[in-house]
Automatic annotation (TrEMBL):
Organism: Micromonospora kangleipakensis
Name of the molecule in the record: histidine kinase
Entry keywords, A to Z: Kinase, Membrane, Phosphoprotein, Transferase, Transmembrane, Transmembrane helix, Two-component regulatory system
Subcellular location: Cell membrane
Residue ranges of every copy of the Histidine kinase domain listed in the record: 78-290
Gene3D superfamilies xrefs: 1.10.287.130, 6.10.340.10, Histidine kinase-like ATPase, C-terminal domain (3.30.565.10)
Molecular function in Gene Ontology: phosphorelay sensor kinase activity
Catalysed reaction equations from the record: ATP + protein L-histidine = ADP + protein N-phospho-L-histidine
Domain HAMP as annotated: residue spans: 17-70
Broad class of enzyme this protein falls into: transferase
EC number: 2.7.13.3
Organism superkingdom: Bacteria
Length: 294
C-alpha cells in the first residue's frame, strides 16, 4: 500500500511538472522582459491548447512591443542625424565670422557665446544617439576591461576636474567584461563626467573597478548636494538633471539615463545611493567575461 502511494505521488509530481512547465516558461520570459530584453520569446513547442494559445499570444504582443520600441529608437536616431548637419553648418558660419580680421570685439564675444550654445546642442544630439543605440540589443561584443576604460575616462575629464578644483582618486583593478567597447566607454565617461560636473569646489570623486566572482563592477562616488532617497529613481529618467537641486544649467540630463540603458543592454544594471554628507555613489554591475559557469 505504501509503495502504491509513493508511486502515485511520484506520477502526480511528474504530471504536475509537465503541466506547469509551459506556465513557468511564460513567467520566466515575463521576468526577462521586465529586464528590458524584448527580443526574447517563449516559442513554446507544445500541442494546440489553451496554454499554447496563451504563449503564442504573448509572443505576438512582444513582437509588437519590440517593433514599437525599435521604431522609437529609429525616430530618435534619424532626428538626431538630421539635426547634426544644420548645427555643424551653424558652427562653421560662426567660426568664419569670428576669424575675419575686421571683426569687432563684440562680434567675437557673441560668436563665443553662440559656439558654446552650439556645442551644447551637439553634445545633446550625441547623447540622444547613444541612448537610442543602447535601447536595442548589443550586437558588437568584444572583451573589454572596465579598468582600462575608466583610466581613459579619467584622462579625458582631468582638465574639467582641475578647472572645477575637484580631486579625483582611483583604485582600478582588472574587471573583464564582454560588450560594445564604444557604449561601455560612453557609460564610464558619463559616470565620471557627471561626478565631476555635479560637485562642489574642492570636492572629491572616487572611481573603483571591482572584479567579483560572477560580475564586474565600477563604482563612482562624489561629493555634492544632498539628495533624498526618493529622488534617486527620477535621476535615471531622460532629461532629469541633478542641477534641478544645485542650480546649474550644465549637462543635457541624459547622463544617468545612458548609463542605465547601456548597463541593461549588456545584461547588467546601474544603481545610485545618496551619500549622507551629499553626493552620490553610482554602482554599475555587468556580467564578467570569465565568470565560472554554475
Amino acid at each position: 500500500m505504501l509503495a502504491v502511494c509513493v508511486a502515485a505521488t511520484a506520477v502526480a509530481w511528474w504530471l504536475s511538472g509537465r503541466l506547469l512547465r509551459p506556465l513557468n516558461m511564460i513567467t520566466e520570459t515575463a521576468h526577462r522582459i521586465a529586464g528590458r530584453t524584448l527580443h526574447k520569446r517563449i516559442d513554446l513547442d507544445a500541442p494546440p491548447g489553451e496554454v499554447k494559445s496563451l504563449a503564442d499570444s504573448f509572443d505576438s504582443m512582444l513582437d509588437r512591443l519590440d517593433e514599437a520600441f525599435a521604431g522609437q529608437g529609429r525616430f530618435i536616431a534619424n532626428a538626431a542625424h538630421e539635426l547634426k548637419t544644420p548645427i555643424a553648418l551653424n558652427r562653421t558660419l560662426v567660426e568664419v565670422a569670428m576669424s575675419r580680421p575686421d571683426s569687432l570685439p563684440q562680434l567675437r564675444q557673441l560668436g563665443e557665446n553662440l559656439l558654446a550654445v552650439n556645442q551644447r546642442h551637439e553634445r545633446l544630439i550625441d547623447s540622444l544617439l547613444t541612448l537610442a543605440r543602447a535601447e536595442v540589443a548589443v550586437t558588437d561584443r568584444r572583451p573589454v576591461d572596465l579598468a582600462q576604460l575608466a583610466g581613459y575616462a579619467l584622462d579625458v575629464t582631468a582638465k574639467a576636474a582641475a578647472e572645477q578644483r575637484v580631486q579625483v582618486q582611483a583604485q582600478l583593478a582588472a574587471a573583464p567584461v564582454v560588450g560594445d567597447p564604444i557604449l561601455l566607454e560612453q557609460l564610464i565617461r558619463n559616470l565620471v563626467g557627471n561626478a565631476v560636473r555635479y560637485n562642489h569646489p574642492h570636492g572629491f570623486v572616487w572611481v573603483q573597478t571591482l572584479p567579483e566572482v560572477r560580475q564586474a563592477e565600477i563604482v563612482v562616488t562624489n561629493t555634492g548636494a544632498l539628495i533624498s532617497p526618493h529622488e534617486v529613481p527620477a535621476l535615471f529618467e531622460p532629461f532629469r538633471r541633478l542641477t534641478d537641486r544645485v542650480g546649474s544649467a550644465r549637462g543635457s540630463g541624459l547622463g544617468l539615463s545612458i548609463v542605465r540603458a547601456v548597463a541593461q543592454a549588456h545584461g547588467g544594471d546601474a544603481l545610485a545611493i545618496p551619500r549622507p554628507d551629499g553626493g552620490l555613489a553610482v554602482r554599475v554591475i555587468l556580467p564578467r567575461s570569465d565568470a565560472p559557469r554554475a
